[in-house]
TrEMBL record:
Gene3D superfamilies: Dihydrodipicolinate Reductase, domain 2, NAD(P)-binding Rossmann-like Domain. Its EC number is 1.2.1.11. This is Aspartate-semialdehyde dehydrogenase. GO terms for molecular function: aspartate-semialdehyde dehydrogenase activity. The keyword NADP applies.
Length: 358
């Protein structure tokens, strides 16, 4: 009998759910036991449910092909079969929030890839290498929900996970203003070029809701736990533009930043290259060995060449130079469906297990 934790994938037929099946195949700690989706997919085998919309380069894991997909709304039934769930549903915000809370109140920990609960004050929104300690707020959340085991933890928006780590490494110099323009892959919309031929030879300068998330979520990640909630910091002030570009995977950011105490270029590169992953994270199965990598080459990082750094869980940075308006500017890159979505969620789940929350 396996001693692995039993996992449910709620929203398992979408792009993030598909990526989760690949990442969890032969995972040392976790084993997928339930896949759930919308009512129209319920009753089909997983292979049947994704037959015409499988978007991963790797094939469907053999062990999951014949799992019968459940209705994600069957919370009571699913709760009896899992130890925790990943939630990556395609519902509106209110329905997503309601569904995730329902699982939590059925004593099922929820690791969410959705935005609905990100700004709830007692829900930890975590990049484990940066603010893993925020998971301690779960104790307060459980009191609010009236649960013993159930809770919700979320991963941040994929658009911020290139530049937030790079700036977090420089916190001792107190960043005070940030401009970030992100150039985001179409997989961030759950699509590929077959689904979205309009993206070929095209750039769309708008992604609904993305700029608000990009400007506000870092303030919670950098916030402090106080009085049973996470308080957002007031600075830095962040302004963003989020642009969809014809790339399969990988979100690139052009970043401009000013500091209260301006560092030297050498100081910045040294902090990036020597970033110390916390011991509590370093030993987790999905953790990168090196989190931040700086390229000296003028034309790096490049999306196609560098998005898979550290199996897609690392951040690459380049083109650091002084700016005429801000103190410095640079570019950085993250893999949006690995670090930014499914992989980030798996790493959070590993941290929660290691710390005894699931």
């Amino acid at each position: 009998m396996s001693d692995k934790l039993r996992v449910g994938l709620i929203g398992g037929t979408g792009m993030v759910g598909q990526r989760l099946t690949i990442l969890l195949d032969n995972h040392p700690w976790f084993e997928v036991k339930v896949i759930a989706a919308s009512e129209r997919s319920a009753g089909l085998t997983y292979e049947e449910a994704v037959r015409n919309r499988w978007k991963m380069e790797k094939p469907i894991p053999e062990v999951l092909k014949n799992i019968v997909v459940k209705d994600g709304a069957a919370v009571e039934e699913i709760s009896k079969e899992v130890d925790f769930v990943f939630c990556a549903v395609s519902l509106n915000k209110d329905k997503t929030k309601e569904l995730e809370e329902l699982y939590a109140k059925h004593e099922v920990p929820v690791v969410s890839c959705n935005s609905a609960n990100r700004m709830v004050e007692d829900v930890p929104m975590v990049i484990p290498e940066i603010n893993g300690e925020h998971i301690e707020i779960i104790n307060s959340q459980r009191k609010r929900l009236g649960t013993n085991k159930g809770f919700i933890a979320v991963k941040p928006n994929c658009s911020i996970q290139s530049y937030v780590p790079a700036i977090s490494a420089l916190s001792e110099f107190k960043p005070k203003s940030i401009l970030a323009c992100t150039y985001q892959a179409i997989s961030g919309a759950g699509k590929n070029f077959e689904d979205w031929p309009e993206m070929l030879d095209n750039v769309i300068p708008y992604i609904g809701g993305e700029e608000e998330k990009s400007e506000n979520e870092p303030l919670k990640i950098w916030g402090q736990m106080k009085d049973n909630k996470i308080e957002n910091i007031k600075e830095p002030i962040i302004t963003t533009q989020c642009i969809r570009v014809p790339v399969t995977d990988g979100h690139l950011a052009a970043v401009f930043v000013s500091f209260e105490s301006k560092p030297s270029k050498e100081d910045i590169i040294k902090l990036w290259e020597n970033f110390n992953i916390p011991e509590s994270v370093r030993t987790l199965p999905s953790a990168p060995k090196k989190f931040l990598k700086y390229f000296e080459e003028a034309d790096r990082p490049q999306t196609r060449l560098d998005r898979n750094f550290e199996n897609g869980m690392g951040i690459t940075i380049g083109r650091l130079r002084e700016d005429k308006v801000y103190d410095y500017k640079f570019v950085c890159l993250s893999h949006n469906t690995l670090r930014g979505a499914a992989g980030g969620a798996v790493l959070i789940a590993e941290l929660l297990k290691a710390q005894g929350y699931i």
